[in-house]
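Thread: iron/sulfur cluster complex, take 2
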Amino acid sequence: MSDQNPQSAPPRIGIVSLGCPKALVDSERIITKLRAEGYDLASSYDGADAVIVNTCGFLDSAKAESLDAIGEAIQENGRVIVTGCMGGDESAIRNVHPDVLAVSGPHQYEAVVNAVHDAVPPPHDPFVDLVPEAGLHLTPRHYAYLKISEGCHNSCSFCIIPQLRGDLVSRQANDVMYEAERLARAGVKELLVISQDTSAYGQDLKYAESTWNGKPVAARMLDLCENLSSLDVWVRLHYVYPYPHVDNVIPLMADGKILPYLDIPFQHASPDILKAMKRPAHGEKTLDRINQWRRDCPDLTLRSTFIVGFPGETDDDVELLLDWLDAAQLDRVGCFKFEPVAGAPANELANHVDEDEKTDRWERVMELQRGISERKLAPKVGKTMDVIIDELDSEGAIGRTKGDAPDVDGSVFLDGDFDVAPGDIIQAIITDSDDFDLWAKRCF
Ligand code: SF4
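Output below.
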């Protein structure tokens, strides 16, 4: 939050808008957002605390005009933020004008506004301050979901997300980092990184770099994890696919930089079914990978989801899945019965499984996993663990270990302990366990 005197004049931002009507609309969106945050608009260079140049890069002549406009703004004002079509080629701008404060491409409204925040902190405004700096959230104050991309570039045959939400569109890394930073400043203790395919983050951007707090950050899963780890909050990864590059984040988990937790929706183990599902990374030798991850990070918690009763699934496929689960010893498993979602290609496949058979298969998976979960939790009794408190009820505090995501995994019950608050991270000794949950007492 700004430390400016609330009585002082609001900071003023100038804008030079070049190019076509689409660029003009972008400029309007940017200034609308800035005005809503309490900034004033400056009509001349010398009255501005910073200047945005919205560039055009359509023709060489337009590029030259954009570079001239940036040069003029630097000369007249000195604090220049570049955006727009030519911003897609950051090096072309920085080669001529290395001193610009930030560069972003077309339609990157958030990135521009973040760069303005960086250059000139937002003013105090009683109307704007009704909205918390970190935005409005439906989750408790101490954890928040951090969405790093929209859409999906896979084509799993049971899914219509790509039809509904379109192809993968990753957020620029600095955009994600500024949001994460705001959330951490607002008191969030745990960030849950989500997307449709977290391991694909940045592929569509060709892992482009952007500037966060004056340093370059790349739109790549490993880099994002490293940067998030600097915020000193728990960072939990969801919806990761078992591509080889996922191996690279395991050392960050072993070093305690991000939580030793991976949520990988394997969905099945039978190669035939995975192929029919058109799952990403279906050819990977996942058991070998899991074993290697556990060697590198013994505290790793693995969560996954599975679908039984997919069209064409045979008894042999189910046996294969059960054997695989037995060998994989995953910590947390969710299982769903296949449902033909309207519009999904899988609906056209032959040999749909009847509902009773699906239920039978579902029960076998859940029963096997219940035993695995019980056996995996029992050795935690007697260990001291970090527990984040989620809530208090009439019996005491309820929290989670680093191995438990909110809503989907187990809980830690601290019966009779009311002297903690949601968001506290405490140390507790585990005293009991059952199929899915733990009981503990706080260490003093
Ligand atoms: S199920 Fe497959 S297609 Fe659907 S969102 Fe996930 S990865 Fe993308």
